[in-house]
Amino acid sequence: MELRKNLPEIFEEFAEGRQNAFLNVKKIKDADKPVIGIFCTYFPQELAVAMDAAVVSLCATSDETIPAAEQDLPKNLCPLIKSSYGFGKTDKCPFFYFSDIVVGETTCDGKKKMYEYMAEFKPVHIMELPNRVSEDGITLYRNEIIRMKEKLEEVFGITITEEDIRRGIRVKNAERDALKRFYSVMKADPAPITGTDLLNAMLGTTFHFNREEIPAQMDALVEKIKAEGTKGEKKPRIMLTGCPTGGATMKVVKAIEDSGASVVCFENCSGAKAVEENVDESNPDVYDALARKYINIGCSCMSPNDNRIKLMGEMIDEYRVDGVIDMELQACHTYAVEGLRIKRFVNGEKGIPYMQLETDYSQADVGQLTTRVAAFVEML
Ligand code: BJ8
Hints:
Shape: globular
Distance between the termini: 38 Å
Bound molecules: Double cubane cluster
Largest sheet: 4 strands, parallel
Number of helices: 16
Oligomer: single chain
Mean pLDDT: 95
Order of helices and strands: HHEHEHHHEHEHHHHEHEHHEHEH
């Protein structure tokens, strides 16, 4: 990262990260490097780092391919699932096209059933994810991580040693530490950057194929932000939680910030959910260490999902959050049902306002979103 550039230029570069990655993924293929496509944060990327493979987050945030998906899937299905399937089916996602293998997990019902159809046109490997954080669940996921490693060895004709995995763990822990240092800049009041820039930078890093370069890049960005200081005025501080954000759902972040508030933290999978906890480097069993880290991701497919409450509670305090907005994608039953528990926690235990928002990938509800968000922000 060039420190001579100003912050808006740097954030613009992050926002364009996906486009640049389109070109880079082709170069990776030309160099005969393995490419692993993923849809979810439960995939232990340490395995990919261990074998020097590129990991690509597959396109799932636009409504462009939903009509094609609806030829095969029900209309009243989560847009993220339809979009994922549609991009694969229509071959409009270069990352999907160049992926040698696509990895899915048994998270929500819609996603896991969709993968059955995706497997008709792409090699898909499914990791069985338990729905409960327990010692039995950890054992099950540990076995699944070993099965995943063996699948990668078989597909790519390689051997992944425990030492390779330890290197993967060190690289990914360093990356997570750097991302935390970056989003922690939002603990300052007023926040030094917008939530839109924060999210674009976070998403931009997912398209960086050399994970080892991320810490230096993030630290340079933090240095730059600190050097520029905070110029704006104090604003109501919002936590965004719920389904992943990015692409079409940037409209929610925009609606919040256009209403005069600041999104100071993203608890969801586009932000802190999978980043906060590291893999225990001192655990002699690398597979157990990976299983324990990943099973703790507080996704609503876990029942009960205490880890979401725990992380939200910590972040509400650390980021001095004034209000929580819980974004649900249409037909996402697990997050929608969990909303009541989140509301009770946020209102009752934290004593701050909570709002649940349902949306999809169209832009048809932007006016309605803006009105509801503005009324919420007004109240803070
Ligand atoms: S770990 S949040 S990335 S599953 S929004 S497809 S849950 S119906 S995206 Fe997710 Fe992994 Fe969980 Fe994170 Fe289903 Fe809901 Fe759609 Fe979802």
